[in-house]
Specification:
14 helices; 6-stranded parallel sheet; 2 domains; Rossmann fold; 14 strands
Length: 341
């Protein structure tokens, strides 16, 4: 293993990719002489490219329909040329196992999910329904099956110097004074409405937080523009709204400059946690035991007394009672407490 060529097939979502960082770091620590590469979809590859220590990254596009099959074959050929000896499959998909098999990688380690067990040379029993199992530990289970036990399970995201330098110009372009306290807000979340606190409540909290010496910044990805625009137009003092206008790398730089980050359970929430940014994380349909930010500076708000949560559904049958139970007053109080240190 110490001199092996290892490829890590990264998760497909930003948050899961952040939660895979302890596994990547553990591989470097356990096998310092190994040649380690990360295979990642284009939308998350930037996360691995932006961090220290530097790692070799192969980015690919997933595609749809016939193009998806062509891309799968193409990435398999790219991997075959590299001559990898071990593949760690973090996604639970059948496609990731097909890629590793077509690439001719002799050792293929992953969970036996999605009917793909026969494509793996080392199959682990699926643990996704195990109570209290954090996603970080789910990924680290792959290494533990190889006898690796002493690992740091906290995701850490340190941006490369060149990336940070680019961020200085970005702040200037946005008219943000370096002496101002920047408060980042991500009101969106993938997987549907059940993970999203109400826009009008975000707007109210942001208005309350708007004080001299502070600047509020709305962040988010493509498709979340209408949500952000609705929040901005309903506020007394609109924030800087760059939702859908930044790359992932630019968003990471801006988050790294924040004195507070407020969000739902999302990928950017995990990025803020990995950079140790004081944060408030709002949970509705999902379970903090599985995906809470592993950050000593985090306040997780998950309603108690709402029997239907966590449900893990993307559409609510209970009138979003879990999100209704999170009030403007408790979020604002938590924010001010964090800002006071």
């Amino acid at each position: 293993m110490k001199k092996s060529k290892i490829v890590i097939l990264a998760p497909n979502w930003i948050g899961d990719a952040v939660l895979s960082l302890p596994l990547l770091d553990a591989c470097f620590q356990c096998w310092p002489g190994a040649n380690i590469t990360v295979l990642a979809r284009a939308q998350v590859a930037a996360l691995f490219e932006a961090r220290e220590p530097q790692v070799s990254v192969l980015a690919y596009e997933r595609g749809n329909g016939p193009q998806r099959l062509r891309n799968l074959v193409d990435v398999s050929r790219r991997l075959r040329k590299e001559g990898f000896e071990l593949a760690l499959l973090l996604p639970n998909s059948l496609g990731s196992a097909v890629v590793a098999r077509l690439a001719g990688i002799p050792q293929r380690l992953g969970y036996a999910t999605d009917g793909r067990g026969w494509l793996l040379t080392r199959r682990l029993q699926d643990r996704r329904k195990e109570r209290g199992l954090h996603q970080v530990d789910y990924y680290l289970g792959l290494l533990r099956s190889l006898g690796v036990s002493q690992v740091d399970r906290v995701p850490r995201l340190k941006l490369r110097k060149k990336v940070i330098e680019r961020g200085v110009a970005l702040l200037d372009d946005l008219g943000i004074d370096g002496n101002e306290l920047l408060i980042g807000v991500h009101p969106g979340a993938a997987y549907g409405e059940t993970k999203r606190w109400f826009p009008e409540r975000f707007a109210r909290v942001m208005d309350l937080l708007q004080k001299p010496g502070r600047r509020l910044l709305l962040l988010g990805g493509p498709g979340e523009e209408p949500l952000a625009e609705g929040i901005s137009t309903s506020m007394v003092h609109p924030p800087i709204n760059i939702v859908g206008k930044t790359t992932l790398t630019e968003a990471l730089v801006l988050i790294s400059r924040c004195g507070l980050f407020l969000s739902n359970d999302s990928g950017l929430m995990h990025a803020a946690a990995a950079m140790r940014i004081p944060q408030i994380a709002l949970f509705g349909s999902t379970d903090p035991e599985k995906t809470a930010p592993l950050n000593d500076n985090a306040v997780v708000i998950h309603p108690e007394g709402v029997s239907c949560t966590p449900c893990f559904e993307n559409e609510c049958q209970e009138n979003l009672e879990c999100m209704k139970a999170i009030t403007v007053e408790e979020v604002y109080a938590a924010a001010e407490k964090l800002l006071r240190g």
